[in-house]
Amino acid sequence: MASTPLTYLNHEHSVASWLLTKDHKRIGVMYLVVVTLAFFLGGLFATLIRLELATPAGDLLSNDDYNKMFTMHGVVMVFFVLIPAVPAILGNFVLPLMLGAKDVAFPKINLLSWYVFVIGFLFTVYAMVTGGVDTGWTFYTPYSSRASNSNVMMTGIGVFITGFSSILTGLNFMVTIHRMRAPGLTWFRLPLFVWAVYATSLVQILGTPVIAITVLALAVERGLHFGIFDAALGGDPVLFQHMFWFYSHPAVYIMILPPMGAISEVIACFSRKSIFGYSFVAFSSLAIAIFGFLVWAHHMFVSGISVYSALVFSFLTYAVAIPSAVKTFNWTATMYKGAIWLKAPMIWAIAFLALFLVGGLTGLFTAALGVDVHIHDTYFVVAHFHFIMVGGAVMGFFAGLHFWWPKITGRMYSEIWAKVAAIVVLAGFILTFGPQFILGYLGMPRRYHVYPDEFQVLNVLSSAGASILAVGYLIVGIYLMASLFKGKHAGANPWHATGLEWTTQSPPLPHNFEVQPIVTREAYEYSSQEVTVG
Amino acid sequence: MASRVDNLYFFIVAVTAFFAVLVSVLVIVFAAKYHTKDPLAVGQPIHGSMPLELAWSIIPFLISVVIFAWSADVFFDLQRPPDQTIEIYSTAKRWMWKFQHLDGQNEINELHVPVGRAVKVTFTSEDVLHSMFFPSFRVKADAIPGRYSTVWFTATKIGEFHLFCAEYCGTSHSGMIGKVIVMEPAAYQAWLAGGVGSGSLSQRGEQLFNDLACNTCHRSDGSGRGPSLVNKFGAPVELANGTSVAVNEGYVRESILTPQAKLVAGFQPLMPTFQGLLSEESVIALVEYVKSLRTTGGGGPRTASEPSATAPATPQNK
Q1: Do B43 and A64 touch (CB under 8 A)?
Q2: Cα dist. A191→A183, A341, A449, A500 in Å?
Q3: Could you tell me if B211 and B203 are in contact, meaning their C-beta atoms sit under 8 angstroms apart?
Q4: Which residue in A92, A157, A477, B264 has its CB near the most CB atoms, within 10 A?
């Protein structure tokens, strides 16, 4: 290495150059650091949960500590891992590159988003170390407003603050996609990841204010005893659930849409062809984002809503399932007559497909009114949403991370270990959450610290799977870290992928491109690809 | 009902297994068949197919509609108890289930029922949300402070079955469990007869009705300052604001605790509130007393031990 090229990583080195950066790439990396910390914290809570549940008796943790563990696991994983993972990390890093832009539309607001996120996280961590919170991540009233003695207020403040980070990021990305596309990059030439991020931004902007209002109302009731949700104060406990799920169901799409976008990129790249049914995949993202706002009460079929509203919400839930099915079929069809290069990102993507398939299909059970009455609030639901949020969102995140890691760091990770890790995580995941479907149908309720002996065998299987899963994630952490020091240099385009992000060097220049790219091709034109600058 | 839920469940298992296998096999076959080690190889430029897109949109939608309709049908029956049921009241509080039988027996975390008879449980919560979940009968409903919920089931086997709280309620949520003891009808009658001799639930309600001086206004002949309550339960009643409301358990409860909320037409808002003065069990006793005020169809307190002549057909699982 005679001379090291200038990159966004090496042009400045001071701590201040990171903490005050307006570079979307550095901000993406800073999100990666915080989200990784949060993932380990949430994973630690999950480990304690699975250890406790290895035996029917409550022998490791006290009742209250167990209740805090699953609450804090949920709060950390939902608000500080799943929601920011793909949009804030991968979206921040690759979105402007994909658009051929120098940065996002509002770089200072982008940095502000990160700070708001970190401050929200610090409030939440403070709530946890000073006693924790035990309401469940759903904060259902009147337990949260009246009965719980834990740090509900402080956690609520953390969630409230973090929401603004999500809103600002969504706004920033939406404006960026509208205004910052390179010449020639028309809407229908956009990579599908961009469509997915656009749809996600819509949900972030429209949905997140509702959770802020909900948390605020909860704080007013808890702090000032102002009756909103508590029947004893003249409020309605079910109203809280309506408001909470009006955000928190669409939030599932904040978690899953961007990974779906990453999967579209990976499958197209490693099948060496255009995505099958581009416009159907693109519009299905928008359809999911919009229909996603109309299904919230499917979380409430046994919460005392009327029979007729249950009917409407069940039907709409089936309607929102169709665009997800369409995506799955299109990804599968994309592989038909492809030239399939089974590199690590593709293995992670195939693992995503397998788990998302199960997660999506088991949604047909929970949407079915007559079946949901039985499986609601059981381990069936726990298994279902982990298949979506971990099997789907986290696997999709890892597929994307492995795909763009050479671009982010300029280094290649160990291909063999990456494939091994994907298979270990897949196997560990299936063993962890597969048995929980059966547990749920047999009637084991969720959030149970102590359970009847007859459920032990399946719980032991689940805990054993969780230990394999933990090993899998650790392997990922190790070889990715090792790649930073020992990894081979990646070159601009190690996957021979299309897309503007691959036309600049790895790691990219501080300002992304030497010259403004001009787009003359459709997305994923592998038949006419050219070898790009290295 | 449990078998109907299971039939639907296994139908969905079959449908989803078919699609899971279909997609998995296709992905594996494609990955094996079109696998290449040449990074510069290029796939065939196929961009899509409208007929395929329509097919895999419409076919899943039609299958979804079938599942939706079937599950809605099961749901309607789960939500609507048959006309003839054994009625039981329950109050959930952290962390126990209290049951009140019409004959006067009370029990905690145990529920005795006869085999082959439809049982309806009407319940509420004294504090936070809970959820009454009988996994063996495939039914569940949240216990909501300030409202009544119901579940109903027909036990088809003798034995003991789980009762779980399914809605997280704090420290001992997982300890808020109990059992349903399903008995032969004769054994159930013996169990009922062996209860404490404090009178039936409606007699306790009547006692409260007199002790709280409800009877000074709610006179049975209609000459009091409040409406007569005889024969009112189950029928609609005209309200002062011009609308009407069905007199059910929830309305009676509301009228005791917040009397001005839905005032009956022709009466003054004179009644004091009993909010905070009555336990949920006492409210239930009063509700049951109001239900028992019938001049036709037998009248008098209702009991669970009525011979099957007055509670004729045992509802069958469809």
Answers
A1: no
A2: 15, 20, 46, 9
A3: no
A4: A92
Residue B33: inside a domain, yes or no?
no
- Do B183 and B210 sit in the same domain of this protein? no
Q: Are residues B139 and B103 in the same domain?
A: yes
CA–CA gap between residue B47 and residue B52 (Å, rounded): 12
Please report which confidence band the pLDDT of residue A189 belongs to, taking 50, 70 and 90 as the band edges: very high
Is residue B311 in some structural domain?
no
Based on the domain organization, do B92 and B145 belong to the same domain? yes
Place of tokens 């392997």: A475
Whether A531 shows a pLDDT value over 50: the answer reads no
Q: What are the pLDDT digits (tens) for A289-324?
A: 999 999 999 999 999 999 999 999 999 999 999 999
Q: If contacts are CB pairs under 8 Å, which of residues 7-46 in chain B contact chain A? A: 8-9, 12, 15-16, 19-20, 23-24, 26-27, 30-31, 34-46
Q: Does the CB of B62 have a partner CB in chain A at under 8 Å?
A: no
Mean pLDDT calculated for residue range A505-524: 93
Q: What element of type H or E holds A461?
A: helix A456-486
What is the helix (H) or strand (E) element at residue B88, kind and residue range?
strand B86-93
User: What is the H or E stretch that residue B125 is in?
Assistant: strand B118-125
Smallest Cβ–Cβ distance between B72 and the set A273, A369, A529 belongs to A369
| Mean pLDDT of the A511-521 span | 93
DSSP assignment of B188-221, as one string? HHHHHHTS-SS--HHHHHHHHHHHTTGGGTS-TT
- Entry pTM: 0.93
Q: What is the DSSP secondary structure assignment for residue B163, as one 8-state letter?
A: E
CATH number at residue B107: 2.60.40.420
What average pLDDT score do residues B254-261 get? 91
The domain spans of chain A are: 27-528
How far does A398 lie from chain B, in Å, by closest CA? 19
Could you say which residues from 172 to 201 on chain B have a Cβ atom under 8 Å away from some Cβ of chain A? 172-175, 177
B128 and B75 within one domain: no
> Which is nearest to A462 in space by CA: A485, A440, A482?
A440
Q: From CA A25, how far away is CA A19, in angstroms rounded?
A: 13
Residue range A164-184, pLDDT digits in tens:
999 999 999 999 999 999 999
Query: Given A231, A368, A526, which is nearest B43 (Cβ)?
Result: A526
| Closest-CA residue of chain B to A346 | B31
Residues of A within 8 A of B171 (CB-CB) are 63-64, 67
**Yes or no, beta carbons of A337 and B46 under 8 Å apart:** yes
What's the CATH fold of domain A27-528? Cytochrome C Oxidase; Chain A (1.20.210)
- Same domain, residue pair B189 and B213: no
Count structural domains, chain B: 3
Average pLDDT of chain A, as a whole number: 95
Residue type for A487, please? G
